[in-house]
Amino acid sequence: MSISKVVKDLRGRLDDKVCIITGGGSGIGFEASVLFAREGADVVVADINLKAAEATVERIKEKIGPIHVRKHAIAMKCDVSKEAEVKKVVEDTLKEFGKLDVMFNNAGIMHAHDDNVLNTDEKVWDLTMDINLKGVWFGCKYAIEAFRRKKNGGNIINTASFVGLMGAATPQLAYTASKGAVIALSRELAVTHARENIRVNALCPGPLRTPLLMNYLDTEDKINRRLVHIPIGRFGEPIEVANAALFLASDESTYITGVEFKVDGGLTAAYVTPE
Ligand code: NAD
């Protein structure tokens, strides 16, 4: 086999791309960080929990073979609700790698006391909005600024949720509202920046088997209330969402912008599917 054939076969789907992944310390962000790195990207794992981000980077180093040593993964501490911290992550990324190609605004919370219209405390509402919505706005703002500076276009993926499209089975008003707003924000940015070769898509996962949701669904009853709505009959896995993010981050999706990319086991297509 010729060397050029070997090298061609080793090319990853994100070769030469620099990606920031927020919330990269756990769940979808963790899986996406490992996957993106394996596909050849330089990855900045940004998380409010620096130790978790560093553990992700260690995992990347363990998983990526020596052929990819030219690639880098670095951990950065970032609370996405703090504008200065998001700005710094983007600036530090440009200093380290010279450009930014993909901003995956994935960090998000579902507060344990998020509730219905009467019971949701204003503090819970504000914290949820600050992280889930303002954090995405800041990420888009500084990514687009970086894309413009480097004049190389760019690609933004914002993690929303199926609840932003259809509401939730159990009350979690602040979360649902924040995710609906992420979808609306993503759509507008996709349109207003399309001619700059900047793509913006909202990723809409269904319920996943991650700590975020499993901590919230803490009774059999709550779990079953969800499962009855999922045609595929199980919760999704973070890697299944990370695979979709990889497609959106890659040049395989260059004509896709402004979409709500659902990864939900058929949930949003279903009327109701009990046995
Ligand atoms: P997770 O809790 O496993 O991971 C979230 C990560 O974000 C953690 O590492 C956490 O430290 C980090 N984080 C929290 N607050 C942050 C902040 N202010 N700044 C930076 N990082 C912060 O969650 P996950 O399930 O992987 O969720 C990732 C995204 O997917 C979230 O936006 C979530 O709303 C969305 N989502 C999750 C589900 C699900 O069922 N798990 C479904 C739909 C959408």
CATH class: Alpha Beta
CATH architecture: 3-Layer(aba) Sandwich
Overall 3D geometry?
globular
Strand neighbour order, sheet with most strands = 3-2-1-4-5-6-7
How many helix segments? 10
CATH fold-level assignment: Rossmann fold
Fraction in beta strands:
5-15%
Bound molecule types: nicotinamide-adenine-dinucleotide
Structural class: alpha/beta
| SSE series | HEHEHEHEHEHHEHHHE
Mean pLDDT: 92
Unreliable stretches: none
Corresponding CATH superfamily: NAD(P)-binding Rossmann-like Domain
Distance between the termini: 54 Å
The main pleated sheet reads as: 7 strands, parallel
Total strands: the figure is 7
Helix content: 40-55%
Number of domains: 1
Radius of gyration: 18 Å
Q: Keyphrases for this structure?
A:
Short-chain dehydrogenase, seven-stranded parallel beta sheet, 275 residues, 14% strand, globular, Rossmann fold, SDR_fam, oxidoreductase, 10 helices, alpha/beta, binds nicotinamide-adenine-dinucleotide
Quick structural summary:
The protein is of the alpha/beta class and 275 residues long.
Description:
There is one protein chain. By secondary structure, the protein is of the alpha/beta class. Helix content is 47%, strand content 14%. The protein has one domain (16-263): Rossmann fold (3-Layer(aba) Sandwich). The N and C termini lie far apart (54 Å). The structure holds nicotinamide-adenine-dinucleotide. Residues 22-23, 25-29, 47-49, 52, 78-81, 106-109, 131, 159, 161, 205, 207-208, 210-213, 238 line the site of nicotinamide-adenine-dinucleotide.
